[in-house]
Each structure stands twice: as C-alpha cells, then as structure tokens.
Amino acid sequence: MTNVPEALLACDDLHVEVGGKEVVRGVSLAIRAGDKQALMGPNGSGKSSLANALMGHPNYKITNGRIRLLGEDVTDLGADERARRGLFLAFQYPVAIPGVSVANFLRTALKAKAGADVPVREFRKLLLQRFAALGIDPSFAGRYVNDGFSGGEKKRLEILQLSLLRPRVALLDETDSGLDIDALKAVSEGINAACGADTAVLLVTHYQRLLAYVRPDRVHVLMQGRIVRSGGPELALELEDKGYDWIEKEVLERRS
C-alpha cells in the first residue's frame, strides 16, 4: 500500500457564512507538499470567500467543518496565528497603506514571522535580489504600500511578499487580475520560483491564462459555494473553450 503524504492544508465539509448568508456549502480539499491546485468558477461562486475563510478572516464565519494546517487544527485560530504557522494569502484587492514604505512593511512582516529583526544589511541584500528577480525597480522600496500603485504593481508586491516570507502554503486570490502579458509572465515566474517541493499552492482564478504559466496538478470548479467538478489541467483548457454554462447545466440536471 502506497503511503499518501499528509496534506499541508486541508478542509473537511467546510461551511462559511458572511453576514448571515451561506457562501461556502460543504467544501473539502486537501493540498499536499509540491501541489499546485487551481480553484476556478464564475463570479459570485464563493472562490474568494473560501480563500478568506481558510486564512481566518474574521468576517467569514465557519458554521461547520474543520481546517487543518500542517496537521494542526487551526479552525479557531486567527489570521495572524495561521500566518505564523506558514499560511499566506495574496489578496484579490490589496489595500493601500499610506505613510508605510514597502521596505518597512516587508521588514516588519519578516520580523513577525521569524520572531526577530533581520539585520538591515542582510534585509537590503535580500530585497534587492527579489526586486531583480521580479523586474521591480529598487526605488519601489521607498514608495508607500499600494498607494497610487497600478494593478500590476500591486500584484508584483504580493508576489514579492510571497518570495520573502516563503510560506508553506500560499493562497493566491486572482493574482492574474488586471495584469498585462509582461506583468503576468513576471508574476508567474515569481510564483514558480517561490513554490517548491515542500510548499503547496491554491490558485484562485477565473481564467486559464495564469495556468498556462503556473501549471496546476489539479483543477476544481466551484459553483454556488460547492465544488462541482475536479480534474487535471485539461479541465482549465476545457473551461476556457466552453465557459461555465455546460457545467452549470450538468449540475442542474443531476439535481432534477
């Protein structure tokens, strides 16, 4: 019998409410080391709600089910505790933090994760390396976090955080949104470089274009808060070709 490695991140029969409305209805997932899994679906299907609930956003109330991170039940832990344990969320809509420079923000984040300050010289060297890898101008370090940033700059900063913090599990919520082709390639290269054999990635996206660069092992389709179909990377190509209507029709036929 083949030993199946334990999932780095798993949820079992997860139900989530926002403002009294159920937005996730019984989702079960298991993401193991080395996995790149994709969660696709139309607008309003619950993709971002699931990502936020997995991260521990306080507005997303778990009414049933459990979440395990690195084998530990983290269902009742806050987002900060999950982050310290190795969970990372790249936001669909990153917020601006006027008055806080990118460099100070990133150094503070590293300190929070490591529990100790990173020496200035070591941090600067590391930051410049990451800037070069992502094609970011070093002057970016002095700008205020997401203040006046373009969509592409915001997403590059998210991936910069990913590459610096090196989480065990990364939830990437529509990281391809608003990117032109050059920015998409740079961001995709950053994702691939940051995610290796000991990490797991869940890519939340509408479209196949990101998955052409960050090839998933498994693709799940979420509709009305439920996973209605799972398959290999070919499923994303089929969705790109046919859209979501054919799956929705199949779901309705099964329920009738």
How are the SSEs placed, and which strands pair?
Blueprint: E1 9-18, E2 21-31, E3 36-40, H1 47-55, E4 61-69, E5 72-73, H2 79-84, E6 87-90, E7 97-101, H3 102-114, H4 120-134, E8 144-145, H5 151-165, E9 169-173, H6 181-194, E10 200-205, E11 218-223, E12 226-231, H7 233-242, H8 245-255
Parallel strand pairs: 3-10, 3-11, 6-9, 9-10
Antiparallel strand pairs: 1-2, 1-4, 4-5, 7-8, 11-12
Question: What's the short version?
Answer:
This protein is of the alpha/beta class. It has eight helices and twelve strands.
What does this structure look like?
A six-stranded mixed beta sheet has the order 6-9-10-3-11-12, with helices on both faces. The protein has helices at 47-55, 79-84, 102-114, 120-134, 151-165, 181-194, 233-242, 245-255, and strands spanning 9-18, 21-31, 36-40, 61-69, 72-73, 87-90, 97-101, 144-145, 169-173, 200-205, 218-223, 226-231. It has a single domain (9-255), classed as Rossmann fold (3-Layer(aba) Sandwich), CATH 3.40.50. A hairpin with a 2-residue loop joins strand 4 and strand 5. Helix 4 (120-134) crosses helix 5 (151-165). The chain has 256 residues and is of the alpha/beta class. The chain is built from eight helices and twelve strands. It is globular, with a radius of gyration of 18 Å.
Which percent bin holds the helix content? 25-40%
CATH topology: Rossmann fold
- Cα shape: globular
Percent of residues in beta strands? 25-35%
**H/E order of the elements?**
EEEHEEHEEHHEHEHEEEHH
Summary tags:
256 residues, single chain, alpha/beta, four-stranded antiparallel beta sheet, Rossmann fold
